[in-house]
Specification:
By secondary structure, the protein is an alpha/beta fold. Helix content is 22%, strand content 25%. The chain is built from four helices and twelve strands, in the order βαβββββαβββββααβ. Strand 7 and strand 8 form a beta hairpin. The chain is globular. Pathway: Protein modification; protein lipoylation via endogenous pathway; protein N(6)-(lipoyl)lysine from octanoyl-[acyl-carrier-protein]: step 1/2. It comes from Nocardioides aromaticivorans. It catalyses: octanoyl-[ACP] + L-lysyl-[protein] = N(6)-octanoyl-L-lysyl-[protein] + holo-[ACP] + H(+).
C-alpha cells in the first residue's frame, strides 16, 4: 500500500480544528470513493480541546484559557491539540483481515519507533491507549502520544497526536483522557532540548508507511497494565474486539 502524506498546515500555517475536520471529511469521502489513495494529513492546530464520545462533564476544563472546546465524532475522552504537537490523521482503507484494534496497535507501534529514533524509550500500557514512558526518577508514568479514531465505511478518520515541543502548561487545565494517576510529557521535555514538529516528520512518515503496509511485525513489549478510569461495560462498546482503553468509534458501512 502506498500512503500519500500531505502537510496540511504547520507552524504559522497551523490549521483551525474545524477547518481540518472538514478537510478530513472531504478526503475520507474521496478515499471511500476510490478517487484518492490512502492519505495521511500531517498538521498542527492552534490551541483547542476536543471531547470524544466518552467525555464526562467533569472532564471538561473549567478554564480553557481561551481555547475552544469542541465535541467530536471519535472515540475516547478529552484531549488537547496545540502548537508544537504533531497531529496525524491517517485516512486509510482497512483491509478485510485487519481489525480496528490491530490498526490502532500499528499506529502506536509506529509512534514507539519514532520516539526510539530520538532515543526515547516508550511502550504501550494495556488498558490505556497511546504511547507511554515508564515511571522513573524523572517522573511518573507519562503519555507522549495520544490516539483516538473513527472508522466509517471501512476507512479511518481522526488519528494521533505526538507531543514534540508543545507548551505543557495547557495540560494543567484538565485531566488528559480522564487519567489522573499519570502524567503527560513531550520529546522536548524528555531530551532537554527543543524538538520542533518539523524534526520528526521524516521519521513519522517512514514508520507509518512501514506499519500501515500491513506487514507482520514484532510488537514492543508492554508495560504493566493499568485500569481505564472511564471503563465502559463491554455490552456498550461500539467495537466488539476493542479492549477497554482503546479510543475507537466505529460505524457500519452504509
Amino acid at each position: 500500500m502506498t500512503l500519500d502524506f500531505r502537510e496540511a498546515g504547520l507552524g504559522p500555517d497551523a490549521i483551525e480544528y474545524m477547518a481540518a475536520w472538514e478537510l478530513q471529511r472531504e478526503v475520507h469521502q474521496q478515499v471511500v470513493d476510490g478517487a484518492l489513495p490512502d492519505t495521511v494529513l500531517l498538521l498542527e492546530h492552534p490551541p483547542v480541546f476536543t471531547a470524544g464520545k466518552r467525555t464526562k462533564p467533569a472532564d471538561r476544563p473549567a478554564d480553557p484559557g481561551g481555547a475552544p472546546v469542541i465535541d467530536v465524532d471519535r472515540g475516547g475522552q478529552i484531549t488537547f491539540h496545540g502548537p508544537g504537537q504533531l497531529v496525524g490523521y491517517p485516512i486509510v482503507r482497512l483491509p478485510d483481515h485487519v481489525k480496528v484494534v490491530d490498526y490502532v496497535r500499528r499506529v502506536e507501534e509506529a509512534l514507539i519507533a519514532v520516539c526510539a529514533d530520538f532515543g526515547v524509550t516508550t511502550a504501550r500500557v494495556p488498558g490505556r491507549s497511546g504511547v507511554w514512558l515508564k515511571a522513573d526518577e524523572r517522573g511518573p508514568e507519562r503519555k507522549i502520544a495520544a490516539i483516538g479514531i473513527r472508522v466509517s465505511k471501512g476507512v479511518t478518520m481522526h488519528g494521533f497526536s505526538l507531543n514534540c515541543d508543545v507548551d505543557m502548561g495547557w495540560y494543567d487545565r484538565f485531566v488528559p483522557c480522564g487519567i489522573s494517576d499519570a502524567g503527560v510529557t513531550s520529546l522536548t521535555r524528555e531530551l532537554g532540548r527543543d524538538v520542533p514538529v518539523t524534526e520528526v516528520l521524516e521519521s513519522v512518515r517512514r514508520h507509518l508507511a512501514d506499519y500501515l503496509s500491513w506487514r507482520a511485525y514484532d510488537a514492543t513489549p508492554d508495560y504493566e497494565p493499568r485500569p481505564d478510569p472511564a471503563k465502559v461495560p463491554a455490552a456498550s462498546r461500539t467495537e466488539p474486539d476493542a479492549p477497554v482503553g482503546v479510543a475507537v468509534l466505529t460505524y457500519p458501512a452504509r
